[in-house]
Design brief:
The chain is mainly α. The chain has one domain. It has three helices and no strands.
Amino acid sequence: MAPKARPNTIVVGPLEANVDKLEAQLKLWAAKIDVLAAKADQAGAQAGIDYRAGIDDLKAKRVVAQAKIDEYKAAGREKWEGFKAGIELAWSDLETALANLKP
């Protein structure tokens, strides 16, 4: 029996499956960022400013993660090992930032 992959763990497999999984997770995170942005708009003045800075950071990290996916798609499966570390770092960075941003 094959070992189960942890949620949000990048599994080396067919190029399309990796890309689809990564892009689906990014879409979920983008929606979560939008919800957090709406909460920031409803927060008080100073709280909203501080919170908005965190949201801007999340958006920048999401852009980096998407860029890594785009690089991976352009390079193809044979280059996976070269991109794996960068994708995993961008992923971890975005996931940690999302977990740490509290309304």
